[in-house]
Design a protein that fits this description.
Chain B: Its main location: cytoplasm. The complex is a heterodimer. Chain A is α/β, with parallel strands linked by helices. Chain A has 8 helices and 9 strands. In chain B, the strands form 4 sheets. Chain B has a 9-stranded mixed sheet with strand order 8-5-9-10-4-11-12-13-14, with helices on both faces. In chain B, strands 1-2-3 form a 3-stranded antiparallel sheet, with no helix packed on it. Classes of the chains: A alpha/beta, B alpha/beta. At the A-B interface, helix 2, helix 3, helix 4 and helix 6 of A face helix 7, helix 8 and helix 9 of B.
């Protein structure tokens, strides 16, 4: 495939990723980025961070070239990676997150189960405290143009006694403080997402319930999956952008999700090529 | 434009490392300072530039058991299995990363990999008597497990016999002195003649050396023989044992205190955490498989790996018969590990087919498939690294080999002809 066929990734019909209309509105949007084993969304997260911070998305969209300093505040809450991981990986996007004043990292990874949550069997109050700290961190930021990323919150469901409803309630509190919340979660079939599971203490049941309810609450969703036809050397997987249960235009008039499916390829040097399917 | 090889360290490494002197022309002597006329790597890179060489990571490269990754230049250590190192694409396991080895069936090939991983760490402590380069933390196993660690491969039985003869000849004795002038030289000549006749000499010349052996990283990897025992065995400086209790916090604190103690003594030390047979009922309490113990434990291990990203690597094994790959336990462990392979021994029918196909070449018989689930760094960046049914392994005395898998072609059997009476004969009968 020649590079001339490359497509730009667009989430909304106004040709944007994190739309200016969302940042200017008073609505709080919720989006779900789901992935499975083999299609890690790191490149997409990094591009969305870049777009929220400075308006560009060098790896996935060549048209978004206008750089805007401190476009929005980005708060990243990760249960799976340390800050160093993002600092290293976002260098490819031309970002220096270590010094960027608009970037806040909330580390829910390094000491999650050694200091923050010491009794996973009865973790409701500790998880509530954790989210209390997250909410106070977000509240302290004065700029109202906030974009929040929560990576792998399903770890709390799998490793602790917290129920899906409790976690959803806490996440919705975070959502209300931001203009846009991205929840990044794994959705491997059978191992994480299985609609046939019925035991309420089973981690699979909790994760399924959590994802189904989030989908019902979301405005638009992004799903990354490997090719159903099997492995290919020049294609990594497919990316689908779809409207959620609550349409975006019901909250922000004249903003419509660009429902499209792309196939994408990630190379060893982390370059991304997208093609419309 | 640089013509430097990818595996070379830019502004790093140290000739102070024993045995790591500049090996070839063009390899600049490197030290902690920058190369003259070359500015240090800038943290901010242009979009099309290569993966950056981390300046802070170079201290780990002072350890002779560490070399830069071929893909990302991150400091990398060998797993003790050369072919597995190649399979991981980094020529080993990058520091601060983990490998999960899943295995189906009742075999225990994973323990061969785990034992080589531990032996390799211990061998790195024997480069210099006064220098401790490595430490192993064995979790959930008894000291008995280390009694069967593989020793160094000393060559084939022929080579060993030759070495014995040479050793005997070098000894001062009456018979050796009598034959020293004429006898030995004529034997060598005879050897050469026979070698020339069978083309042994040309073979020796054409045989390409192992990629590691002739490089600057001569201590990076050793070859192990599973029929030999590591002698002398590991001592308290080489290995620590951490029993598994029912509190993940205590377990993590124990591991962390061992790491802190060793890192304090030698900041460039490599600590290898080995967890053979994770959740195996013979060593683990049934409550250990509870998600409220297991997931916090593995998550905290991941946090330790990131915290000591210049010192610690982890290899664990899990039985896929006890925890199948489509179970939540295996999925969570896979997602928390940085790399994962799945050993899938062949069933009886396939084993018989391969044995029939290679009946004249028993050394070619493979024992199972190696499926790649995740690879360090690359999978995390979003690359699709799942390879199923593309590689096979064979476990031999000499080494654990991994090679590309191809279904063996069975020789077509000689045509059999049916006689009029219903019997069979191999001769073609004309009536």
């Amino acid at each position: 495939m020649s590079s001339g066929q490359n497509q730009d990734l667009i989430l909304f019909k106004d040709n944007s990723l994190v739309s200016e209309q969302i940042l200017n509105s008073k609505a709080s949007l919720l989006s779900l980025i789901t992935h499975v084993q083999g299609t890690s969304p790191a490149w997409l997260t990094n591009s969305l961070i870049e777009n929220a911070l400075c308006g560009t998305a060098a790896l996935v969209n060549n048209d978004l070239t206008k750089k805007v300093d401190n476009r929005a505040e980005v708060i990243l809450i990760s249960f799976l990676h340390s800050k160093d991981h993002y600092i290293k990986n976002c260098r490819k996007n031309g970002l220096d997150l270590a010094t960027n004043p608009s970037f806040t990292f909330v580390d829910c990874f390094t000491k999650l189960f050694t200091e923050t949550i010491k009794t996973p069997e009865k973790a409701s109050s500790e998880v509530a405290n954790l989210f209390g700290n997250i909410i106070s961190t977000i509240s302290k930021i004065e700029n109202s143009r906030k974009v929040v990323f929560v990576e792998a919150p399903e770890i709390l469901l799998q490793a602790t006694s917290v129920s899906s409803d409790e976690l959803l309630a806490l996440l919705l509190k975070v959502n209300r403080l931001s203009r846009q919340l991205f929840v990044i979660s794994s959705r491997d079939y059978n191992t994480v997402f299985n609609l046939d599971s019925s035991v309420s203490q089973d981690p699979v049941f909790k994760c399924t319930d959590f994802l189904v309810k989030l989908h019902h609450r979301s405005q638009y969703n992004i799903s990354l999956q490997p090719l159903s036809t099997g492995r290919a050397n020049d294609i990594t997987g497919s990316l689908a952008v779809s409207t959620g249960a609550i349409p975006v235009d019901s909250l922000i008039p004249n903003l419509y999700v660009n429902e499209k499916e792309y196939i994408f390829n990630i190379t060893k040097d982390s370059n991304v090529r997208l093609f419309l399917r | 434009m640089s013509f430097r090889k990818r595996s070379d360290i830019i502004g790093g490494g140290s000739s102070a490392v024993p045995g790591r002197a500049p090996s070839g022309i063009g390899r600049a002597p490197v030290g902690s300072g920058a190369i003259p006329g070359r500015t240090p790597a800038h943290p901010r890179l242009s979009i099309n530039s290569r993966i950056p060489v981390e300046v802070e990571e170079i201290s780990a490269l002072k350890n002779p058991s560490v070399r830069p990754s071929l893909i990302s230049s991150q400091p990398t250590v060998s797993t003790g299995t050369g072919d597995l190192d190649k399979l991981l694409l980094h020529q080993g396991l990058p520091l601060g990363h983990s490998l999960l080895v899943e295995e189906s069936g009742t075999t225990d090939f994973a323990s061969v990999i785990l034992r080589a991983f531990v032996s390799q760490g211990i061998m790195h402590n024997r480069i210099n008597k006064d220098q401790i380069n490595s430490h192993v933390i064995a979790v959930g196993i008894s000291t008995q497990w280390t009694a069967n660690l593989p020793g160094l491969y000393k060559g084939s039985s022929k080579d060993q016999k030759k070495a014995k003869i040479l050793a005997n000849e070098s000894k001062v004795s009456v018979s050796n002195l009598a034959t020293s002038t004429a006898g030995v030289t004529s034997r060598v000549d005879n050897d050469l003649k026979i070698a020339w006749r069978y083309g042994v000499n040309s073979k020796q010349k054409s045989a390409s050396p192992e990629p590691f052996e002739n490089s600057a990283y001569e201590y990076y990897i050793n070859q192990f023989d599973i029929t030999q025992k590591l002698a002398p065995g590991p001592n308290a400086q080489d290995i620590s044992f951490v029993p598994v209790g029912l509190s993940h916090i205590q377990l993590i604190q124990q591991i962390q205190s061992i790491i802190q103690r060793h890192v304090k003594l030698n900041p460039a030390i490599v600590i290898r955490i080995a967890i053979p047979g994770l959740l195996n009922p013979t060593g683990y309490n049934p409550l250990s498989s509870s998600p409220t113990f297991l997931y916090p434990f593995v998550h905290s291990l991941r946090a330790i790996l990131r915290q000591y990203s210049q010192n610690v690597v982890l290899v664990a094994s899990l039985s896929s018969d006890l925890y199948p790959r489509d179970s939540n336990v295996a999925h969570v462990l896979e997602s928390l590990a940085d790399s994962c392979i799945h050993l899938q021994p062949f069933n009886q029918e396939m084993t018989q087919l391969i044995e029939r196909a290679y009946k004249n070449e028993p050394s070619k018989i493979q024992q199972g498939l190696v499926n790649i689930v995740k690879l360090p760094v690359l999978s995390e960046k979003g690359m699709m690294m799942i390879h199923e049914g593309e590689y096979a392994f064979k476990n031999g005395r000499k080494k654990f080999e991994i090679e590309e898998w191809g279904i063996p072609v069975e020789d077509s059997e000689k045509e059999e002809h049916t006689t009029a009476e219903g019997g069979t004969t191999k001769k073609n009968l004309d009536f």
